[in-house]
Amino acid sequence: MSTYTAPIRDLWTTDVLVIGSGSAGATAAITAAREGVTVALVERYGFMGGISTQVLDTFYGFYTPGQQPRKVVGGVPDLVVDELLRRGKAVFRPNTYGAGQGITYDPETLKLIWERLATSAGVRILYHTFVVDALMEGDRVTGVVAINKGGFVRLKARVVIDASGDADVAAAAGVPYESAADGPVQSLTTTFRLLNVDVARARAVRKEELHALMARAIEDGYALPRREGSVHITPLDGVMATNMTRVANIDATDPEQLTRAEIEGRRQAEEYARFLIERVPGYERAVLGGLSTQIGVRESRRIFGAYRLTRADVLSARKFEDAIARCGAPIEDHHAGSDTVWQYLPEGETYDIPFRCLLPESVEGLLVAGRCLSADHDAHASVRSMGQCMAMGQAAAVAAALAARQGRPPREVAISDLQARLRAIGAII
Ligand SMILES: Cc1cc2nc3c(=O)[nH]c(=O)nc-3n(C[C@H](O)[C@H](O)[C@H](O)COP(=O)(O)OP(=O)(O)OC[C@H]3O[C@@H](n4cnc5c(N)ncnc54)[C@H](O)[C@@H]3O)c2cc1C
Fold first, then answer.
1. How many A from CA of 43 to the centre of ligand 1?
2. CATH superfamily of 8-180+300-424
3. Fewer CB within 10 A of the end CB, N or C, for the chain?
4. What is the pTM of this model?
5. What's the pLDDT tens digit per position in 298-315?
C-alpha cells in the first residue's frame, strides 16, 4: 500500500493497465484494445518499443533455427512485421550464431508503427510517466502509483500487466523474484550504428576475419572486452549496426550501478567504433551515427510464478497443457567472460511457454509479460527474444481481456478459452 504524503491525483480507470511499452507491453496493449476492452499504457520514455526501439533492430524468435525455418510466432506480432515490410524498412537476415532467421528493421520506423497500431486500436497512452508503486487491496493489485511532471498519479484497472522488463510492479506488490543478488545475470550492451559505410566491402568481411582483426587490435592496445560480437546490415543505405560492447556484473535495478554501466557502455562503443573505422575494410570513411537510447539490459528481475520455466524444459523441447506460445531459440548466455555461450534445442524443435509463467505467485489481478517472466537464468537466456516477448504480451492481453469481461482473476480464466481465442487471432500455439 502506498505511504506517500505528497498528494496523489486519480487519473484513469480502465479494464486493463499495461506498464511498459516494450515488445511485450506494446503488443499487450494493442492486443487488449483490439479485444474490445479499455486499455491504458504507461511508459517512462516518450515513445514506444522498449529495447526494440531504444537499443535494437532485429526480431529473433519468429522462426526456428536450422535448415528448414518454421514460423512459431503469429497474430498481432505479424501486424508489426508486415507493416515494416510494406514500408520497405525490414529485411530477413539469418543469425550467424544459429539463432534462426531474424527480421532486421529500422527502429525509427518501428516507433511510428507501434504508436500507430496502439492509437488506432484505442489504447490511451501516457508517456514520460514512471511507475513507482503497486496499489493493493489485500492480495489483489488494483492499479499503480506513478510520477510525472504533473506530480503523483494513481491509475486503476481490473487487471494490470507488468511489462516493465524489470518486474517493477510485481516487485512493489511483494511478488518474490530472482535478480543479480541471487546469481549470475547476463551482461549489458550499448549498441551503436555506423553511417557512411561501404556496405558491400564491409559485409564481405566474414565473422571469423572480423574476430581475428579484433584479436590483433587487442594485442595492439585497443580496449575491447568482448572478443566477438556482430556488425550487421540494416535496411538503410550505408548504415551498419553493432552488438559488440559488454558491461558485466551489473544489477540493472540499482541506479548507481546502472549509471556506471551507461558510462562504461558508451566508452566501449567509442572504442569499438574506432577499431572498426581504423582496422576493418569498408569502414574507412564511417562515422559513429547513433548510440542506443540507453544501455541494453538483457536480464534483471525474474519473478516466481505459478510455474518456473527451466533449462531442462528448454533443451528437451518440453510441451505444456497451458501453452500460450512457442520458442525454438537457443540458450544464448552473454556471461561475464569474453565470449558468449550457446546451447541449442534438438534441430527444428520448439518448447512451449506455459501461461503459468505469466501468473505471479501470491498476488491476484496481475500478469507479467516479456523478459520478467518466471524462468530460471538459463531458460530466460532462450525465451527472451522479442518474438517470444510479443507472443507473451499477446497472451497476457487476451487473458486480461477475458478476466476483465468475466469479472474473475486472470488465474481463473479457463485455459481452453484462452487458447481458443489466441488461435482465433492467429497466435501459433
Ligand atoms: C543488448 C541486447 C541485445 C539483444 N538482442 C536481441 C536480438 O537481436 N533479437 C531479439 O529478438 N532479442 C534480443 N534481445 C532480447 C530482447 O530485446 C529483450 O528480451 C526484449 O526486447 C524485452 O522486451 P520487454 O518488453 O520484456 O522489455 P523491454 O523492452 O525492456 O521493455 C520494458 C519497457 O518498460 C518501460 N519501463 C520500465 N520500467 C518502467 C516503469 N517503472 N514505469 C514506466 N515504464 C517503465 C521501459 O522504458 C520499456 O519501454 C537483446 C537484448 C539486449 C539487451
1. 12
2. FAD/NAD(P)-binding domain (3.50.50.60)
3. N
4. 0.97
5. 999 999 999 999 999 999
